[in-house]
Amino acid sequence: MAAFPTDTAELAYTPAVAEATRPLYEKIKAFIPEVEWPFHAPLVHAINRLKRERNAVILAHNYQAPEIFHTVADIVGDSLLLARKAAETDADVIVLAGVHFMAETAKVLNPSKVVLMPDMGAGCSLADSITAADVRLLRQRYPGVPIATYVNTSAEVKAESDVCITSGNAVEVIESLPGDEVLCIPDQYLAKWVASQTKKKVYTWNGSCEVHERFSGPQLAAYRQQFKGDITIIAHPECPPDVLAEADFVGSTAKMQDYVEGKQPRRVLLITECSMADNLAVNNPGVEFVRPCNLCPHMRKITLSNILSSLTTLEPRVEVDPSVIDGARRAVERMLAVGKK
Predict the structure, then answer these.
(1) List of residues 6+ apart from 34 with CB closer than 8 A
(2) What is the distance of C-alpha 183 from the center of its chain?
(3) What is the pTM of this model?
């Protein structure tokens, strides 16, 4: 097994590395100062070399930093797209540049593959808000009511659920379920938004995303006043209701991207994790992004350095208890099947 290249000479910014990585830097030079690129480039070059040697694929969420999202990631997108691509990949090794529940989902869909999580501490406040035991108690309290669980949960929680959802397909999946009632857990704000989009009675859990919960309606109103109304506000449905009420458009990260790329608004306030604005700005130079910069502390734990270390050592590996995998995979696959109908 190759040793992690910690020697300065092994990770030097040589003319060959500079030449090989120049096209990648051109994409992100507006966000990475030129003086910093010599520190990133050797890591980028080594990661892309190791990917080929390992037959590895890097899946990166929209909230990853530009130097990861645009230079080493093979597949980028929201949690729904990453789940779909994880189910389809023929790579031997999957590196998840995101948070832990995403890596678990990749492992559930690929139990025989090596799934790497560069930092096992990259968690999620939503995933931490509910346990499998909680779901079992909810099933007792609401007998016969389908349980639709956000993918931002542990594999154990998914295994106790009937189907998974993402912010991008929540309404579609919930409409496909039988009956007039549904448990939409654990994000209270996503559930409230879903309830506004369906005639079904929606029950929820008291979970929330620590990033999206920081935004407020008065904050958005102040931005409108500052720019004299000349601003388009796009919000993620994990935000509180007063935020969504102020927004011009509400949608998942993928739908936010589609809106920006399709509409090309002159000035955008993107109400979600602020790295997404950086990543969208790369391919949408005509759009001015106003950045109320709320960063996810868990996403920030993934770095070029620990991605390289993970690929070198093939550690840390994400494992899921075999007794949990079948139930969790069934819930995820039911979700994926809805979008294919």
Answers:
(1) none
(2) 23
(3) 0.88
Per-residue pLDDT of the chain (341 residues; tens, 9 = 90+): 444 554 445 789 999 999 999 999 999 998 899 999 999 999 999 999 999 999 999 999 999 999 999 999 999 988 878 888 888 899 999 999 999 999 999 999 999 999 999 999 999 999 999 999 999 999 999 999 999 999 999 999 999 999 999 988 999 999 999 999 999 999 999 999 999 999 999 999 999 999 999 999 999 999 999 999 899 999 999 999 999 999 999 999 899 999 999 999 999 999 988 889 888 998 899 999 997 767 888 999 999 999 999 999 999 999 999 999 999 999 999 998 986 54
Cα–Cα distance measured from residue 30 to residue 340, given in angstroms and rounded to the nearest whole number: 38
Closest by CA to 82, choosing from 71, 72, 67, 95, is: 95
As a residue count, the chain comes to 341
What are the C-alpha distances in Å from 163 to residues 106, 151, 335? 16, 9, 6
The upper half-sphere exposure of residue 167, i.e. CA atoms within 13 Å in the direction of its Cβ, equals 26
Q: Lay out the sheet containing 163-165: strands in order across.
A: 163-165, 147-150, 181-185, 201-203
Tell me the torsion sign for CA atoms 153, 106, 332, 209: positive
